[in-house]
Every structure is written in structure tokens, then in C-alpha cells.
């Protein structure tokens, strides 16, 4: 599994400064999503979910991601 993740992973070296999360400890997560130009940030963190999106990154629950991306026919 780890090998498969490495094949599809994008490594980001520099993170932008972000001050958007209600909990400052979550800002590096948002910065990583922005630096990697992620389409989705999948989380169960209610504070981060409350943001709904950061720039072009949609913030969704695992269930939403599953329904929208993994099983788009449902």
C-alpha cells in the first residue's frame, strides 16, 4: 500500500503561510492542500469542515468523498 501511495504522491517542499483554520494546528494541513493544488481535502475535523473550501480545494467528509468521487454513480 505504501509503495502505491509513493507512486501517486506529490511531494511539496514549501508551504504557503495559512491562517484560516479555527484551530491553528490545522493550518499546516490546509497549507499542504494548497501547495499540492489538491482538489479535495478529506477530513472528519468539524472545524476544518466548516470552511467548506480553501481556494480551489473542497473540504469534505470521507462519506462525501466516497459518494462524489469513488462512487459517482450513486
Task: Write a brief caption for the model.
The mean pLDDT is 91. With 74 residues, the chain is α+β, with helices and mostly antiparallel strands.
Describe the structure.
The relative contact order is 0.15. The radius of gyration is 13 Å and the shape is globular. The mean pLDDT is 91. It has helices at residues 2-8, 27-35, 46-49, 62-70; strands spanning 40-42, 53-54, 57-60. The longest helix is centred in the middle third of the chain and has 9 residues, at 27-35. It has four helices and three strands. A hairpin with a 2-residue loop joins β2 (53-54) and β3 (57-60). The chain is α+β, with helices and mostly antiparallel strands and 74 residues long. It has a domain at 38-74. Strands 1-3-2 form a three-stranded mixed β-sheet.
Task: Tell me the layout of helices and strands.
Layout: H1 2-8, H2 27-35, E1 40-42, H3 46-49, E2 53-54, E3 57-60, H4 62-70
Parallel strand pairs: 1-3
Antiparallel strand pairs: 2-3
- Terminal CA distance reads 26 Å
**How would you spell out the order of helices and strands?**
HHEHEEH
How many helices in DSSP terms? Answer: 4
The biggest sheet, with number of strands, parallel, antiparallel or mixed sense and barrel status, is: 3 strands, mixed
Task: State the helical fraction.
Answer: 25-40%
Mean pLDDT: 91
What form results from the Cα inertia axes? Answer: globular
Physical arrangement of strands within the biggest beta sheet: 1-3-2
Summing up helix and strand content along with how strands pair, one would put the structural category as: alpha+beta
Rg from alpha-carbon coordinates: 13 Å
Low-confidence stretches: none
Strand content: 5-15%
Amino acid at each position: 500500500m505504501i509503495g502505491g501511495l509513493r507512486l501517486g504522491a506529490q511531494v511539496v517542499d514549501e508551504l504557503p503561510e495559512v491562517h484560516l483554520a479555527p484551530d491553528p494546528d490545522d493550518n499546516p494541513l490546509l497549507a499542504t492542500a494548497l501547495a499540492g493544488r489538491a482538489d479535495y481535502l478529506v477530513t472528519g475535523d468539524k472545524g476544518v469542515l466548516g470552511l467548506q473550501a480553501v481556494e480551489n480545494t473542497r473540504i469534505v467528509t470521507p462519506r462525501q468523498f466516497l459518494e462524489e468521487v469513488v462512487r459517482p454513480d450513486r
